Every structure is written in structure tokens, then in C-alpha cells.
TrEMBL record:
This is Lipid droplet-associated hydrolase. It comes from the Eukaryota. Belongs to the AB hydrolase superfamily. LDAH family. The lineage of its organism: Eukaryota, Metazoa, Chordata, Craniata, Vertebrata. The keyword Endoplasmic reticulum applies. The keyword Hydrolase applies. GO terms for molecular function: sterol ester esterase activity. One of its GO terms (cellular component) is endoplasmic reticulum. Keywords: Endoplasmic reticulum, Hydrolase, Lipid droplet. It holds the Pfam family LIDHydrolase. Its EC number is 3.1.1.13. It comes from Rhinolophus ferrumequinum (Greater horseshoe bat). Signal peptide: none annotated. The gene is LDAH. Transmembrane segments: none annotated.
Length: 286
């Protein structure tokens, strides 16, 4: 699509039960129920951006491995099997994306974009050296303090605090972020973060090698979570891979201020894949 053409794309917010956990899903486009939509206009490609068995079947749902299983369950349960997939991961979402490729070879994933990937040595990174003691050793202090401070706090005050913080960061949101100040959410985030520090250590070269043709890595030059050294190391190990280094000084948390620039960049990378799908679709019609 040409950059000059702008159209409003509807965004649907839904809450579904996946693995026994209420799961927030954002859907971009006019389709709300892909499984039951049998029309000819049903999309042939789904872009899955990482953000049902019974709950008992997935242990530790809020841990790192539980989150991987949760995303796999969603794809297997809520997406038609014949729908081709593009998986986009950011930060720890890149680790999840690689795990999906590893554990679900039956899924028709044609491309995966790993943006600012935290897929190795997280605790050794500049930010990891700070986060590891906080998340692994001191997180119980966070649990207690957040509960004591935020639990009795009225919703209006929480909403005001959040709006002030967003204004200071110059960030706008069309959806409610009030859950960010819930002690339960903060505790789960800290717990997941502690597991990331302990478990994301060695890069999964075997999975990367197996799926290298469909992978695109994008590293930052000012990223304290995956420094330039990590880019240089993976580039040496996989010189034939599509491994790129950001030349625009986009930060790790690009979703705050550089989301439009990143979206346009990834859309440009996807053009060839979309053209191939359109060609295959036209061929099947003939």
C-alpha cells in the first residue's frame, strides 16, 4: 500500500478465555471471528504480534514457559489452521517467537520479525545487571509495597497518577491502562521478569539455524537490553542471516514514541511476502 493512501483500520478489543486465563486481544481489521468466517474475503494471512486447554494443563501460566504455552494455545485454538502467519516479537516477545517456531512446526509461519531481541544473556546486559537483583532478590519488597500503597488507593487517584505519568512521557493511549497499577499485575510482571533474567541465558542457535530463512533480526545501537555486542556475535555465527542493525538510534522501548516509524519499516519488509501470498491465492483461483 502506498504511503500516500491512508485509511481508517478498525481496532477491536476483546477478552477471551485462553488456558483458563482472561486474555486481552486486539484485532486490527474488519474481521472479528476468523474461525467461523467462511467467506471468500476471509484473510489468508494473520500478523501475530506478541504481547484452549484447561488451566491445569499449563502450569505456572504467568511464568516464562507458561506464557509461551499460552501463545501456542491461542494460535492453535483461535486461528484457522490454513491461515498463514507472520509472527512479530519485540524484546522478550522475540524469545517467545523462537519458542513458537521450535515447539509448533505445524503452524504455517512464513516470516518472523524479531525487534530488539532479548534472546540471550539478559542478566549480563547493562539493564539486566540492574534488573536482576531487583527482580530476583528484592521483588517481594515490591509485592508488599505495591499492595500497601495501591490496594487502598481509589480508582480516581490511580487514573490521575497514570495520566500524569503518560503526559510526562508524552505518550497517548486509546485504551485503559489502569490495570498497570494493580498490585496483582505488578507482581506478575516482576515474577515474569525474574524468570527472564534467570532463564534467557544461552541463544537458541539450533532453532535459529533451522528457521533462519524466515527470520529477520533488528538490533539497536543504544539498546541496554541487547547491546551492539550481541548483534556482532550473532552476525558472526549466522553471516548469511537477515540480521540488521538500527542506524536511526531508535530505543529499545520504541512503542512509546517510534511506533509509526517501526511499523512502516516492518511493513516495507513484508511487501515481498504479501505479494507472494497474493500470487499464490490468484493461482489457486485459476
Amino acid at each position: 500500500m502506498d504511503s500516500e493512501i491512508k485509511e481508517e483500520i478498525p481496532v477491536h478489543e476483546e477478552f477471551i478465555l485462553c488456558c483458563g486465563v482472561e486474555t486481552q486481544v486486539f484485532k486490527c481489521g474488519p474481521w472479528t471471528d476468523l474461525l467461523n468466517d467462511q467467506s471468500a474475503n476471509r484473510p489468508k494471512l494473520l500478523i501475530f504480534i506478541i504481547t484452549d486447554p484447561n488451566a491445569q494443563e499449563i502450569k505456572d501460566i504467568y511464568g516464562l514457559h507458561g506464557q509461551v504455552e499460552h501463545k501456542l494455545a491461542f494460535l492453535r485454538t483461535h486461528v484457522p489452521k490454513e491461515t498463514k502467519l507472520v509472527v512479530i516479537g519485540h524484546s522478550i516477545g522475540c524469545y517467545v517467537a523462537l519458542q513458537i517456531l521450535k515447539h509448533a512446526p505445524e503452524l504455517p509461519i512464513i516470516r518472523s520479525f524479531l525487534l530488539f531481541p532479548t534472546i540471550e544473556r539478559m542478566s549480563e546486559s547493562p539493564s539486566g545487571r540492574i534488573a536482576t537483583p531487583l527482580l530476583c532478590w528484592l521483588r517481594y519488597i515490591l509485592y508488599v509495597s505495591s499492595y500497601l500503597l495501591l490496594k487502598p488507593c481509589p480508582e480516581k487517584i490511580k487514573s490521575w497518577l497514570l495520566s500524569v505519568a503518560l503526559q510526562k512521557m508524552n505518550v497517548q493511549s486509546d485504551f485503559s491502562l489502569l490495570n498497570l497499577l494493580e498490585p496483582f499485575c505488578l507482581a506478575n510482571a516482576a515474577y515474569l521478569g525474574s524468570q527472564e533474567m534467570m532463564e534467557v541465558v544461552k541463544r537458541d542457535n539450533e532453532t535459529i539455524k533451522e528457521h533462519l530463512p524466515k527470520l529477520t533480526f533488528y538490533y539497536g545501537t543504544i539498546d541496554p537490553w541487547c547491546p551492539k555486542e550481541y548483534y556482532e556475535d550473532i552476525k558472526k555465527d549466522f553471516p548469511e542471516g537477515d540480521i540488521r542493525l538500527c542506524e536511526k538510534k531508535i530505543p529499545h522501548a520504541f512503542t512509546l514514541h517510534f511506533y509509526q516509524e517501526m511499523a512502516e519499516m516492518v511493513a516495507g519488509w513484508l511487501k515481498d511476502d504479501l505479494s507472494q501470498i497474493e500470487t499464490e491465492t490468484e493461482g489457486n483461483k485459476d
